[in-house]
Amino acid sequence: MGTLGPDAVTQLWREQSRALTLYARQWCDAPEDIVQEAFLTLVRQPSAPDNPLGWIYRVVRNRAQNAGRARRRRQSRETAAAQRRPSWFEPGHDDRLDADAASEALQQLPDDQREAIVARIWGGLGFDEIARLTDASTSTVYRNYRRGLRVLQERLGWKCETSNNKTSR
């Protein structure tokens, strides 16, 4: 048993890489990477396997299954973590606000709009304070705040009642 030469590896690649990719696709989302890694492993072997084709299929299968299991575990952990994530809002006695819907709508806002709204409404900061905090002009912070409120109104189907002292600069 000698090493597998570059010509033999190249020929095996040309003849089998597409079929191996299709084979790996049934277990994982990145079959091309798996096939490439398997060929790199083959090249690094100190001696050629008795049956290189069978060997490469075994390596592709094992790696693809491992990658698929890892992806499913990661998704499961991420889903569990997302479900444990606390709501942005404290539960209250006021049924006017659906906390889950409001949290989701807030998270979908651009960062600058979300930051202005949270700092203004829940933080009680003035627009000048938010401007200093975010290194933006007061007028930019105010525009971000108003745009964000309009988007929230549309998404949540409610009208924001703001008094002059809440929206004034």
Question: Quick gist of this model?
Answer:
With about 170 residues, this protein is mainly alpha-helical. It has eight helices and no strands.
**What sort of overall outline do the alpha carbons produce when their principal axes are compared?**
elongated
Order of helices and strands: HHHHHHHH
Task: Report the sheet-strand fraction.
Answer: under 5%
Reported for the largest beta sheet, the result is:
none
Overall pLDDT level: 85
Structural class: mainly alpha
Count of extended strands = 0
What is the helical fraction, as a range of percent? over 70%
Count structural domains. Answer: 2
Question: What's the gyration radius in Å?
Answer: 28 Å
Q: Unreliable segments (pLDDT under 50, ≥5 consecutive)?
A: 163-169
Helical segment tally?
8
Describe, in plain words, how this protein is organized in 3D.
Residues 163-169 have low confidence and may be disordered. This protein has helices at residues 6-25, 31-44, 52-84, 99-108, 111-122, 127-134, 138-156, 164-167. It is elongated, with a radius of gyration of 28 Å. It has two domains: 6-84, no CATH class; 99-167, Winged helix-like DNA-binding domain superfamily/Winged helix DNA-binding domain (Arc Repressor Mutant, subunit A, Orthogonal Bundle), CATH 1.10.10. The longest helix is centred in the middle third of the chain and has 33 residues, at 52-84. It is mainly α and 169 residues long. Helix 1 (6-25) runs antiparallel to helix 2, helix 1 crosses helix 3 (52-84) and helix 4 packs across helix 7. The protein starts with 5 loop residues before the first helix and ends with a helix. The chain is built from eight helices and no strands. 71% of the residues lie in helices and 0% in strands.
